Amino acid sequence: MTALWLMFSASFLAATLLPGGSEVLLVALLNESSDAWLSLVIAATVGNTLGALTSFYLGSLGRFARSPEEVAKGKYRHAMVLIQKYGYWALLLSWAPLIGDILCLLAGWMKLPLLRSTLMILVGKCVRYLLVAAFALHWL
């Protein structure tokens, strides 16, 4: 049970703008207890999704601090283009290093639909953790 809370917490923190490597922890925990792979993947997915939704919420608050022109010209320009072009579908990339956190933040800032955004974030993060688990269980 401690491993699940640890996995959840690490995944939650890794999904915010804080640095973290929840995949490394998942691999380590799978090496200790491969039978718990599904529980660990679920804990990681839920934690990481909730962390991403925290960034989404913070982005919605940030709308009061930055104008669209400031964001479009700033360092978030590429992520902004992705969200403008693909909408909530771009959040399937929320798992990606560097751009994933910013996509979630901008999705909230742009007031994308919460339910659809949550679903895309959940799917993207779940697929990532399933692939990490499969790699760890079969090749490590």
TrEMBL record:
Residue ranges occupied by any VTT domain in the UniProt entry: 36-134
Keyword Nuclease on entry: no
Ranges annotated as spanning the membrane: 36-58, 86-109, 115-137
GO terms under cellular component: plasma membrane
Keyword terms, alphabetized: Membrane, Transmembrane, Transmembrane helix
Entry keyword NADP: no
This protein's name: DedA family protein
Organism: Shewanella hanedai
Classification lineage: Bacteria, Pseudomonadati, Pseudomonadota, Gammaproteobacteria, Alteromonadales
